[in-house]
Amino acid sequence: MIVIDATSSAPPFEQLRAQLADAVSSGELAPGDRLPTVRRLAEELGVAPGTVARAYRELETAGVIETRGRNGSFVRGGDDPVREQARQAAEAFAQQIRTLHLDADEALALAAAALRSGPAKLV
């Protein structure tokens, strides 16, 4: 059950986005589950439709849900959306490294340094 806390410092769209993402991660919402329409959920929660629409857009961008036009919004099936985004980022990184003609060891050292502290420093 989604609850919007009016006293929270987090904006309502972020509260909604986080709660839906948690419901997907926990399995409470399964791949293929249809989400309520923007208007219906906005009415149920007492928020503006734009609030729900923004949360849905951010979830779609993150790969958690997908919108199928007039058919509605659904929980995406397949891999964990966070891992899928990480895989896509890694693939983009690998492609850039190939374009720059760097070897894999140097690229991995740069990535490890960036993950640890920020900009990589070669020795």
TrEMBL record:
Record domain HTH gntR-type: where: 10-78
Entry keyword set: DNA-binding, Transcription, Transcription regulation
Gene3D superfamilies assigned to the protein according to its UniProt record, in alphabetical order: Winged helix-like DNA-binding domain superfamily/Winged helix DNA-binding domain
Pfam families linked to this entry: GntR (PF00392)
PANTHER family, A to Z: HTH-TYPE TRANSCRIPTIONAL REPRESSOR YTRA (PTHR38445:SF9)
Protein name: GntR family transcriptional regulator
